[in-house]
Description:
The chain has helices at about 45-55, 90-100, 140-150, 160-165; strands spanning about 10-15, 20-25, 35-40, 65-70, 75-80, 110-115, 130-135, 155-160.
Amino acid sequence: xxxxxxxxxxxxxxxxxTLLMARTxxxxxxxxxxxxxxxxxxxxxxxxxxxKRLEPKKSQSRYIHATCGVHPARPLLRxxxxxxxxxKEPNYLAEILSGQFRIEPEKYTVHVINAGDGTDFDPARxxxxxxxxCGVPSDDVVAIKDGLLAAGISQEEQQLGCxxx
Length: 165
């Protein structure tokens, strides 16, 4: 079965108070913002009305597929300087999370990026020692995803909004 190319883009930004949704002319640049709607995060009726305005004809899956930027209540955004000699140790990054940041690594979803340019950190090619640990408790990830699914939004991608800020 062949799928049609996606013509419209949907983007969402959610924090604890508001939900900002946008429909764009394309999923890739160059794109034009066609509609922008803001509504209270907990108002199911307002979110449903906003989704109907953004996408009047529902897809077969009944969900709008969107790129989502979220601002959870308990984000992890911490800078650290790594010791290059220890990068080959299998638990080195977990030690930093538990020792320096005082969090339980198994309870968090964490991604490490280079502090200088924001690219993905690769321990095999570590040219920079300064990194950012970006994450959120795994329970919060599930709660955010479940809340968006209940509202009719399927996440194509979930991004931690405070990283770009």
